[in-house]
Amino acid sequence: MLLFFFMSFMEIVSGADWCYQSEVSCNHTCSGPDDWDLVSHHCISKAQSPVNIVTRRTLPDGRLTPLHLIGYQDTFHGHLSNNGHTVQLDLPPSIRINGGNLVRTYNAVQLHFHWGKNGGPGSEHTLDGERFPMEMHVVHIKEQYSSISQAVRDRTGVAVLGFFFQESSSANKKFAPLINALKRITRPSKKTTLEGVSLQMFIAPHSNMTAYFRYDGSLTTPLCAEAVVWTLFENPIPLSRQQLAAFSQLEFSSGRPMVNTFRPVQPLNGRQVYRSGGHVAGVSAALLLVALLVHTP
Predict the structure, then answer these.
(1) Three-state secondary-structure class, residue 42
(2) Domains in the chain and their CATH numbers?
(3) How many other CB atoms are found less than 10 A from the CB of residue 50?
(4) N or C, which end of the chain has less CB nearby within 10 Å?
(5) How far apart are alpha carbons 134 and 131 in whole angstroms?
(6) Structural contact between residues 135 and 142, judged by C-beta atoms closer than 8 angstroms
């Protein structure tokens, strides 16, 4: 009986005591990614995220049509916070998605970011082994649920839209309100408000969202629940080097710079990654056209 209570106590304590690898060296009391199973047993299950997407091994799926984005253009006042692991923007539930072979309509909950160090590699998912400077996750839950804790009990309870970022020579003006607000939430538990913003400001143009990948996976932080339908868009969003580096000015709870906030890629373990029809006009089609031109008499 005493052993049972001790183990239960340790699970409660460790549940709030996970960290990224960049924190492990300076914080010996937290569990890094290799030890997240000490925080939650789900973290060593067989359908974990993120993963490396090998494009030549993806399968086309005609059901993966463009998603319907509802309320993405509407303005709102959103709370932006440093939660000790990332920067998070809370979203109103009036923002919803459906279509694209999703089983239901999903309501938005929040978005957050994963990044490297001063604009270096930092995305969670990789594409043909390439790690982008940053990745944004827009988290939605099935409309019948009122919280993520409820939704994760359902194998398809959570739908996350993932966007890669790439370095550009000029600043992305649409991101200016969010980038400028980061200096107000440097320390954990700090919050501020973004006024009059829309989710449309922070995503790729809708015309660039036809090419995406789909697979079943998990949350990428403890408790690592395997309840996520992942949609990862192939075309990255541009940010300047200075804008990307601004995220590295945030601090972990330890006071150390909040950098390299990504989980290492996880094995697919037999899972299939599918691609939308939007890829037909991409690299493969271009290579086919070149081949035809070369061999045309």
Answers:
(1) helix
(2) 1-41 (no CATH), 49-281 (3.10.200.10)
(3) 24
(4) C
(5) 8
(6) no
- Among candidate residues 41, 42, 68, 85, the one labeled active-site is 85
Q: Check: CB of residue 185 under 8 Å from CB of residue 82.
A: yes
For residues 68 and 164, give the distance between their C-alpha atoms in angstroms, rounded to a whole number: 20
Coil/strand/helix, residue 6? helix
pLDDT tens-place values along the chain, 297 residues long? 344 333 333 333 334 589 999 998 766 689 999 999 999 999 999 999 999 999 999 999 999 999 999 999 999 999 999 999 999 999 999 999 999 999 999 999 999 999 999 999 999 999 999 999 999 999 999 999 999 999 999 999 999 999 999 999 999 999 999 999 999 999 999 999 999 999 999 999 999 999 999 999 999 999 999 999 999 999 999 999 999 999 999 999 889 999 999 999 999 999 999 999 876 444 444 333 333 333 334
DSSP state letter for 206? G
Cβ contacts of residue 115 below 8 Å, gap of 6+? 122, 133, 134, 135, 244, 247, 248, 259, 260, 261, 262
Closest by CA to 92, choosing from 140, 34, 41, 159, is: 140
Distance, CA of 217 to chain centre: 12
SS3 call for 263: coil
The strand pair at 106-115 and 96-99 is best described as: antiparallel
- pTM, to two decimals: 0.89
Q: Is 68 a catalytic residue?
A: no
Neighbours of 64 (CB within 10 A): 23
